[in-house]
Amino acid sequence: MIKQKVPFVDLHAQYKTIKQEIDTAIQNVIDHMAFISGQYVNEFEFNFARYCKAKHCVGVGNGTDALYIALKSCGIGYNDEIIVPANSFIATSEAVSMTGAKVIFVDCHPETYNIDVSQIESKIRPNTKAIIPVHLYGQPADMVLLSEISKKYQLTIIQDCAQAHGATIDEKPLSHFGDILCFSFYPGKNLGAYGDAGAIVTNDDILATKARMFANHGRLEKYNHEFEGMNSRMDGIQAAVLNVKLKYLDHWNEQRIKHANQYNDFLKQIETIITPYQRPGIKHVYHLYVIRTKQRDLLQQFLKDHSISTGIHYPIALPNLKAYQYLSHQNDDYPMASQYQNEILSLPLYPELTEKIVNTVCHSISDFCKIYST
Predict the structure, then answer these.
(1) CB-based contacts of 107, cutoff 8 Å, min separation 6
(2) Within 10 A of 307 (CB to CB), how many other CB atoms are there?
(3) Do 250-372 and 12-107+114-246 fall under one CATH topology?
(4) Phi and psi of 309, rounded to 5°?
(5) Helical ranges in 33-106 per DSSP H
(6) How much is the mean pLDDT over the chain?
(7) According to CATH, what is the number of the domain 12-107+114-246?
(8) Distance CA 322, CA 315 (A)
(9) Does residue 357 surpass a pLDDT of 60?
(10) Fold exhibited by the domain 250-372
(11) Alpha carbon distance 235, 52 (integer Å)
(12) Residues 6+ apart with CB under 8 A from 274
C-alpha cells in the first residue's frame, strides 16, 4: 500500500506555481469593478484568438453555451439533423437538442475513440446540416477527411474543442479546419478557469458577430436588441485567470505529453492493457490519458485501494443514456462505443505530475495484472 494519495487532478498544485500572478489578476478585476465583459474579457479574447491563429474569439459563460450559440449562429434549428459522436460528454448532443434539431449519432473509431469518419456519409440525409467532431481526450478528429465530406455535402463543421486546447494537425491549428470552434474552460481543462467559462473561435466575420450578439441578448449596443438571444457572457475574473494561465498552456501541454509518453513506455509492455493510439501528424495534448482493459472495474477498485484516483470518460455511451431512450437505439447500433464504455479508464494526468508518481501508478497496474492474470 502507498501512503501518499495520488489525485486524478491537482488544481491546487498548479495554483501554487502561479499564485502571485493569479491573486494580482483577480485583485485587479475587483479594483476596476470589471465583473461582466469589459477590459479583461476583451484582453483574453484578443490573446486567445491570437493563440488559436484565428480572427475572432467570443467569450461566453461555459462550453455548453459555446456549442449552443455556435449552432444558433450557424442557423441550426427545428427539423435539422446534426451528426455527433456516440462517445462524448452529453454537452455535445445536449446543445443540439436545445436548438430543436435532431441528434444523429455515429460510432467511435476503434483506435482513436473519436468519431469514425468512415461511417458519416451513411448517416447524411436531406435534413443534415452540420457535423460536430469532438477532439476527444485531446486528440483531434480526422479533420482532413471531415473537411472533404463537409464540402461534398455542403455541411457546417462545428468543432468541439473542449479537451483540445493547443492541439494541432500537421502543425496546423484547429482553426484551420471547419467553420467554428467551441471551447470549455472548466477548471480541470488544459486551460481552465476558476469557475465556468467558454469561448467561440472563428475566422468568419459574420459568424463572430452573430455569436457575440446571441450571447448578449441579441444586441451589440445596450437596449438595441435586433433579435432574441440569451445571456452568456464571460465574467472578468475568469478572463483574468485565463489570461495568466494562457502564457503557460504550451508548457503545461508539453508536460502532459511527457507524462503520457512515460505511461506509454511502461504500460505498452503489459498485454492486457491497451494504451492510447496517436494518429501520425497529430499533436495530442492529453487532456486525459485513457487506457482500456477487460478488467476495468476490478482495476479501478484495486487502484482506489492503493490510494490512486482514476476516472471513466465516459461510463455510458451517449446513445445508451436514458436521456436518449426516445431514439430507440440498441447497444448493437454503436458496437465500439458500447464495448468501450465498459473498458476505458482514465489515469491521473496533470502537468505537475512527477515521474515518481507516474511510476507508482504504472507499478500498481503491473501488480494488479500479475495478480489477476493467474
Answers:
(1) 86, 87, 116, 119, 333, 334, 335, 336, 337
(2) 15
(3) no
(4) -85, 140
(5) 38-51, 63-73, 90-98
(6) 97
(7) 3.40.640.10
(8) 13
(9) yes
(10) Aspartate Aminotransferase, domain 1 (3.90.1150)
(11) 21
(12) 291, 292, 293, 343
Q: Which residue has the cell 440525409?
A: 125
Distance CA 369, CA 12 (A): 32
Q: Name which of 201, 131, 219, 104 is nearest 161 in CA terms.
A: 201
- Give me the residue spans of the domains in the chain: 12-107+114-246, 250-372
What pLDDT does residue 71 have? Answer: 98
Instruction: Retrieve residue 200's grid coordinates.
Output: 467561440
Could you tell me which of 353, 282, 343, 294 has the C-alpha nearest to residue 14? Answer: 353
Cα angle, residue 224 at apex, residues 220 and 228 outer, rounded to 5°: 80
Does the pLDDT of residue 361 top 60, yes or no?
yes
Closest alpha carbon to 367 in 303, 321, 308 = 303
Paired with 201 in beta bridges are 57, 181
* pLDDT computed for residue 3 by the predictor: 61
Please name the amino acid found at residue 352: E
All cell numbers assigned to 198:
467558454
Q: What is the pLDDT of residues 140-194, one digit of tens each?
A: 999 999 999 999 999 999 999 999 999 999 999 999 998 999 999 999 999 999 9
| Type and span of the H or E element at 243 | helix 236-246
320: helix, strand or coil: helix
